[in-house]
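User: Sequence for Multisubunit sodium/proton antiporter, MrpG subunit below. C-alpha cells please.
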Amino acid sequence: MIEQVRIGLIVVAIALGLFFTFVSATGVIRLPDVFSRAHTASQADTLGAGFALAAVALTFGWEPVTVKTVLLLVFIFVTNPTAAHAIARAAYEEGIEPWTTGDDRR
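Assistant: C-alpha cells for Multisubunit sodium/proton antiporter, MrpG subunit:
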C-alpha cells in the first residue's frame, strides 16, 4: 500500500515537472520581451526542475544520491531566480524598454 502511494507521488511529481517545464519553454518562445521571458524562465523552470528532482529523490529513497539531489534542488532554487534577475537588470541598464499593452510589436 505504501509503495503504491510512493509510486503515485513519483508519477504526480514527474507530471508536474513536465507541465511546468513545458509552460516555461512555451513562455520563452511566445512572450514578447526579455523581461517577461526572464520571469517565466525563472519561475516555471524552477518549479519544473524542482518537481522532477523531487521525483528522483522519491524514487531513490534514503540513499546518498538523494542528498545530492536535494542539494542540487537547493542550488537550482537559488541560482535560477538570481540569473533571471541579472539578465533583466542588464537589459534594463542597456535601455531595453519593457513591452506594454499599447505596443504592437512582437
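The helical segments are 2-30, 34-60, 64-93.
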